[in-house]
């Protein structure tokens, strides 16, 4: 930790303050490059806390994608590999196969995981690779400047859909998480978000479960995290979170889809087979 | 398994050498004419004996990225394919070179372009030695000319790959992959223990102990000044390979008036053509390339200084000939002879080309 911060902390403790929260040691001191208000920072922290709490910092390998989180390896104080665009599930497959007792996780965005890396994602899931995949979905290509992603909503504006996504031109948004839940190789499939403290707590529990599952060796654990992309959406962070709740969440419902290898009771079958029309945004 | 005389296909030799040389993992995708590599591995079930992992991937794109992931943990990891599949792997290869990950890639060449043909060819020389993917990088490229060398070069590949932290390419072709020859097997080299892996690959992502900083495997550097330093480091590595790791073979070059330069299958044909020429009283030698990168520039130039002409024999439209002319600074008459599209030239055709293009 930064020495100035540490010194100030010691002063405050002497003055009688109590430490109620501290940053996990699994995050490095590097200053994150993410836009303020973006969900990446929070999601990184949750993963790091889970690694810390499970005591596996010396036995975990992460794989970062190409996209906003390409530099994730600078922020986690664990061994890390940076994969080519979309290839993280293939990279992680081999890490896990050759090091079966190591905890392996991938961290990808929607363009990386659901567009250019669709084949690697589906086949890693279908093989039941015993690893954890974290999928941050903000419905846009953030790093390259806000172009349409496979998860961009119908009607949603982006740099390459300046008049809104049109089904006749661009096809439908891809619900990758529902799709993966239909494959027998997935053991845990869930969608979470990190826009408020309640959501953060649930997301952390999901990430913890997804890591704990690796001990069982029963298949892939997949956690989608809905995030705003306030700069790409051209909104303030607060407005972007509101917009996410109003528009993203009806189309990408929050909650567990598959737990312990079984589809959760009450999940709409139409949602899983993906023939349920998505809401058209105004 | 000890040293033993066996009869087998080149592709099978590759697979058996991987197991015998302590390879930790193979990731591949079927493609003619090299599918016997993975078929042999799957039939041998090395995961039950040496503990080697074998996995059939969903594509060559996936298999080369599996090589990236596995090899970056400091283990000996390999893949194999044939020309169209190797083209798909070019993205992965440039990332492997850029992240300095040692690994083994085998290309059993077939004719192109496009889907081309499934018969043997040597038309991937440029792709292999001039950088098939983007950016300034080189693969250490070995060209076996026999089933025995298919086997032996797998053992050699690991030494070079880990010494230089660089991918090694074995550039073979459908003729050597498919033909059966005798070969002497070697004693098994055990897979590295956990301690050996950590000692041999201190840079690997094998789990960060409290005693070191986290290891990062990446080919990304956003700071131009630092990326230039990295590029210079790579170039220094390739220069060292050129200085220390060149391999070639000379036959009858001492008194030769003419030489044939060839590698792989073509060198076998050229050898016969050389014998036929010698029987006719024409003093012909053979300069066989074993490493295509690094190219034996100095050694070839020394030989070329004493001959009247050079015939380059290659199953392509003439790719290797460019490096031959650069090595000799075009100081001696040099011509290309080759067949392509999967056609293998006969020794008679090579001799005829030598007489018509060089000696005449």
- Per DSSP E runs of 2 or more residues, the count of β-strands of chain B stands at 15
How are strands sequenced across the largest beta sheet of chain B? 3-2-4-5-7-6-13
Order of helices and strands of chain B: EHEHEHEHHEHEHEHEHEHEEHEEHEHEH
pLDDT average of chain A, as an integer?
94
CATH class of chain A: Alpha Beta
Low-confidence stretches of chain A: none
Query: What does the average pLDDT of chain B come to?
Result: 97
Beta content of chain B: 15-25%
Number of helices of chain B: 14
CATH architecture of chain A: 3-Layer(aba) Sandwich
Which architecture of the largest domain in chain B does the CATH hierarchy give at level 2? 3-Layer(aba) Sandwich
Summarize the structure.
Chain A is an alpha/beta fold and 282 residues long. Chain A is built from eleven helices and ten strands. Chain A has one domain (35-265): Rossmann fold (3-Layer(aba) Sandwich).
Summary tags:
heterodimer; A: 282 residues; alpha/beta; Rossmann fold; eight-stranded mixed beta sheet; 10 strands; B: 360 residues; 2 domains; seven-stranded mixed beta sheet; 14 helices; 19% strand
Describe the structure.
The complex is a heterodimer of chains A (282) and B (360). By secondary structure, chain A is an alpha/beta fold. Chain A has a single domain, classed as 3-Layer(aba) Sandwich (Rossmann fold), CATH 3.40.50. In chain A, the strands form 2 sheets. Chain A has an 8-stranded mixed sheet with strand order 2-1-3-4-8-7-9-10, with helices on both faces. In chain A, strand 9 and strand 10 form a beta hairpin. The N and C termini of chain A lie far apart (47 Å). Chain B has 360 residues and is α/β, with parallel strands linked by helices. Chain B has 2 domains: 193 residues, 3-Layer(aba) Sandwich (Rossmann fold), CATH 3.40.50; 112 residues, Rossmann fold (3-Layer(aba) Sandwich). In chain B, 41% of the residues lie in helices and 19% in strands. Chain B contains 14 helices and 15 strands. Chain B has a 7-stranded mixed sheet, sandwiched between helices. In chain B, strands 10-12-11-14-15 form a 5-stranded mixed sheet, sandwiched between helices. In chain B, strands 1-8 form a two-stranded antiparallel sheet. In chain B, helix 2 links the parallel strand 2 and strand 3. In chain B, helix 1 packs across helix 2, helix 3 packs parallel to helix 5 and helix 11 packs across helix 14. Chain B starts with a strand and ends with a helix. The model of chain B has no long low-confidence stretch (mean pLDDT 97). At the A-B interface, strand 1, strand 2, helix 3 and helix 5 of A face helix 3, helix 5 and strand 9 of B.
């Amino acid at each position: 930790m930064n020495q100035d911060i540490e010194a100030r902390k010691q002063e405050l403790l002497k003055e009688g303050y109590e430490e109620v929260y501290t940053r996990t040691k699994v995050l490095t001191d590097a200053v994150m490059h993410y836009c303020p208000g973006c969900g990446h920072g929070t999601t990184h922290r949750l993963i790091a806390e889970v690694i810390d709490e499970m005591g596996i910092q010396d036995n975990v390998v992460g794989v970062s994608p190409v996209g906003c989180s390409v530099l994730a390896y600078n922020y986690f104080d664990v061994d890390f590999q940076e994969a080519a665009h979309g290839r993280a599930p293939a990279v992680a497959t081999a890490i896990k196969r050759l090091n079966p007792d190591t905890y392996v996780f991938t961290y990808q965005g929607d363009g990386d995981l659901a567009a250019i890396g669709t084949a690697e994602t589906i086949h890693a899931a279908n093989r039941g690779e015993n690893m954890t995949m974290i999928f941050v979905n903000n419905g846009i290509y953030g790093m390259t400047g806000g172009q349409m992603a496979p998860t961009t909503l119908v009607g949603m504006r982006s740099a390459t859909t300046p008049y809104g996504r049109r089904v006749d031109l661009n096809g439908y948004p891809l619900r990758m998480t529902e799709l993966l839940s239909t494959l027998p190789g997935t053991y845990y499939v869930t969608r979470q978000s990190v826009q408020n403290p309640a959501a953060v707590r649930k997301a952390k529990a999901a990430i913890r479960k997804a890591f704990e599952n690796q001990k069982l060796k029963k298949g892939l654990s997949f956690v989608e995290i809905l995030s705003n992309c306030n700069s790409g959406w051209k909104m303030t962070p607060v407005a972007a979170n509101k917009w996410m709740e109003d528009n993203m969440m009806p189309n990408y419902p929050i909650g567990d889809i598959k737990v312990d290898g079984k589809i959760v009771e009450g999940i709409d079958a139409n949602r899983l087979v993906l023939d349920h029309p998505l809401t058209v945004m105004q | 398994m000890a040293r033993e005389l066996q009869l087998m296909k080149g592709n099978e030799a590759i697979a058996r050498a991987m197991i015998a040389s302590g390879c930790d993992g193979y990731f591949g995708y079927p493609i003619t004419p090299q599918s016997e590599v993975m078929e042999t591995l799957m039939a041998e079930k090395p995961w039950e004996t040496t503990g080697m992992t074998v996995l059939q991937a969903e594509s060559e794109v996936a298999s080369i990225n599996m090589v990236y992931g596995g090899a970056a943990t400091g283990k000996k990891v390999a893949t194999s394919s044939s020309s169209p599949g190797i083209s798909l792997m070019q993205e992965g290869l440039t990332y492997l070179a850029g992240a300095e990950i040692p690994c083994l890639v085998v290309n059993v060449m077939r004719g192109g372009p496009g889907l081309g043909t499934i018969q043997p060819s040597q038309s991937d020389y440029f792709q292999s030695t001039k950088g098939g993917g983007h950016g300034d990088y080189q693969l250490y490229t070995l060209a076996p000319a026999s089933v025995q060398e298919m086997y032996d070069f797998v053992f050699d590949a690991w030494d070079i790959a880990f010494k230089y932290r660089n991918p090694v390419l074995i550039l073979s072709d459908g003729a050597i992959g498919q033909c059966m020859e005798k070969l002497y097997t070697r004693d098994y080299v055990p897979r590295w223990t956990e301690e050996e892996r950590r000692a041999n690959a201190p840079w690997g992502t094998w789990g960060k102990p409290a005693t070191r900083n986290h290891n990062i495997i990446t080919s990304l550097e956003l700071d131009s000044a630092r990326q230039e330093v990295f590029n210079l480091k790579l170039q220094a590595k390739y220069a060292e390979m050129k200085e220390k790791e060149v391999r070639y073979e000379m036959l009858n070059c001492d008194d030769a008036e003419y030489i044939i330069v060839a590698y792989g299958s073509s060198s076998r044909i050229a050898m016969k053509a050389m014998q036929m020429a010698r029987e006719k009283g024409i003093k012909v030698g053979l300069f066989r390339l074993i490493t295509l990168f690094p190219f034996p520039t100095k050694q070839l130039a020394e030989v070329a200084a004493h001959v009247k002409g050079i015939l380059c024999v290659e199953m392509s439209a003439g790719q290797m000939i460019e490096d031959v002319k650069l090595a000799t600074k075009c100081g001696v008459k040099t011509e290309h002879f080759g067949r392509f599209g999967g056609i293998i030239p006969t020794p008679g055709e090579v001799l005829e080309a030598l007489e018509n293009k060089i000696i005449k």
